[in-house]
What does this fold into?
Amino acid sequence: MITDNLTDTVYFSNYLPKVCPNLYKNLKQILKNNGVDCRLLKYTNDYWCRDYMPIQTEDNRFVSYKYLPNYLNDSDNRKFITDVKKVGNVDFLKWGDNVVDLDLIIDGGNVVKCGNKIVMTEKVFVENKNKSRDDVQKMLTDAFECEIVFIPWDREEIYGHSDGVIHYLGDNRVLMTNYEQIDADMAKKFRQVLDEHFDVVSLKYDVETLNDNSWAYINYLQIGKLVLVPQLSIPEDQQALQQIQNYLPECNVIGVPDAMEAIKDGGALNCISWTIKAPDANQKFIEDYHKQAKRVVREQQKQPFSIEEARRQTEIINGYYDGDK
It folds into this structure.
């Protein structure tokens, strides 16, 4: 299973720079400073790309699914549903070859890969009520080729995403958000399931008044040994950074300012990203792309070109050009 600590490449929706300009600028700079390949998906319909992009299980194997969540299944919101097969800048995804097509309604945010298991909330059964629970479970197990652990769905959270509840730490350890401080009964229900499969630890904050958005720290973004934690400009920020760093001592844990640009709409850094371990074919594509860019620059050096074009070609060579926005 390709868990977060094995990934090396991160994609964002082409909408992110428009909707969350300051957050995107901060993320892009931090990723660049840490040598992480950062790219923009093209032809997406919203910026929550974790929810609709295929889920990588092995180096060159992905699981796609129906992205038709109930919170978007009305005339006003269907325009935000992305047709994954039309998304650009992902040439290594080949339907019928390395992409398994799963005939279930799923959100990628409700799939947290935890070693040789996957954790989902039971909302998946509600979304697929035309199928029996046993059939849904078997289809999931067959597609992901692993055990699926189902945790309760907190009905106060309409999306039903497991990535708003836990994050995998490695070595069979799972980090849970500060549910004990938010809803002790739900926390107990989560622990009853998770404790049977993992060593579970929880975030907690020593503050006089707990901020309503303190749940968001669990939705951090991890690419390999780089961990990016949302910052909300509240007292909990530093406590979250310190706790996550303590649980992941081998990682470089960095706070990302302006995360409220996304959090105000119900998600954080994991939600707005799609992380993968780049398949060999993708690496070759990247290398060929950079070689071609260098040839273009050499040709254009023979004639004047604009400052904007010079910037674009320089960023192509460095691997950080965003493409057409």
Observations:
- Residues 283-325 form one domain.
